[in-house]
Amino acid sequence: MKKFFAVCFLFLGVVLGAQAQTQAASDTLYQALGQKAGITALVDDFVGRVLRDERIKHHFKDTNPKALKDSLSDQFCQLSGGPCKYEGADMKAAHADMGIRKHEFNALVEDLQAAMDARGIPFTQQNRLLALLAPMHRDIITER
User: Fold this and answer.
1) CB-CB contact of 82 with 39 (8 Å)
2) 59, 108 in Cβ contact below 8 A?
3) d(CA 30, CA 113)
4) Would the CA dihedral through 138, 110, 27, 68 be positive or negative?
């Protein structure tokens, strides 16, 4: 009888552990952003806003919008825990000669927040993504 209870306890532990892992996996930021399709839609909206934003669009005049979207989608996907691999330049090298000021960086963040709002991404998930992106400001802002 003890053996039966031990087996039942072990089985219950495996089932509950699997449920906890499934719940943890489904609770990732990647899931909350709508996986690859949701991230792609977010980035499409975001890049569109950036390219129309009078405060910063001059920084993107020589940029290939599709390449930018693809790169950002991979970056957001990887950062959020998705299966993608960002293979673009590091932020310091990519922005070294752009002369980006703090207020321009803030405009970019505002555009991202507006895109997330438009996509209905909950505020807590927005903050999670922004927290992952925020440390990059040190490498992006090159002008004071």
Assistant:
1) yes
2) no
3) 17
4) negative
Alpha-carbon radius of gyration of the chain = 20
Q: Which residue has the higher pLDDT, 46 or 24?
A: 46
Residue 56 has φ and ψ, to the nearest 5°, of -135, -5
Distance CA(55)–CA(116), nearest Å, equals: 19
Between CA 139 and CA 100 the distance in angstroms is 10
Global confidence as pTM: 0.79
Is domain 29-140 given the CATH code 3.40.1790.10 in the classification?
no
Placement of tokens 């991404």 in the chain: 121
- Can you tell me which residue has the tokens 């752009």? 98
| β-pair partners for 143 | 101
